[in-house]
Amino acid sequence: MEYPTESIKNVVESFSKLPGIGKKTALRLTLYLIQRASHEVDSLANALLALHKNTFRCKNCNNLSDREICNICSDNSRDNGIICVVEEIGDLLAIEKTNTFKGRYHVLGGRISPLEGVGPNQLSINKLLERILNENVQEVILALSTTQEGDTTAFYLSKEILSVNPNILISHIAKGIPSGASLEYTDELTLSRSLIYRSQYSVISPSKT
Length: 209
What we know:
Strand content: 5-15%
Distance between the termini: 52 Å
Strand order of the largest sheet: 4-3-5-6-7
CATH architecture of the largest domain: 3-Layer(aba) Sandwich
Radius of gyration: 21 Å
Low-confidence stretches: none
């Protein structure tokens, strides 16, 4: 497709690299921005630059934060004895929207997937084990996606967690979430009930179930 200017082409191509945005949507967004006042576009550009410059990973749980320790980890009203393990930031935000869980989190940064070249060393697993050793953690909730990769990750985590604390309770969210679904796109009521009616995790190889 021919674009009126090189600048329009560059912006369209940049937008189309974002997940879920095709060339048509990218062009529509670009034309919308052209019609906005310059100070609005400047504000958007500055916000994007600040987002990239001032957003960090929490040193404790791997959540996103504008400080070394995120708001959740620094909240004294949270229950230190329960850690909810999630794959990505979007999963954490989805659970927070339910206003059900009042413990703390740990963000793995993905899930074990050999086909995609993601192994345990690419995830924030060692940090989780350190927290279990050094903090008074009584329960770990495995709030992972209900996929084969999610099940594999849960099985690996459960063995590693029990190796550092054999007495800890490992639970998983209830199976109200459809198989193969992502937590990020699960409705709040289903996700809330899954947390409330969670059950103890059984350390049995997925291949034997």
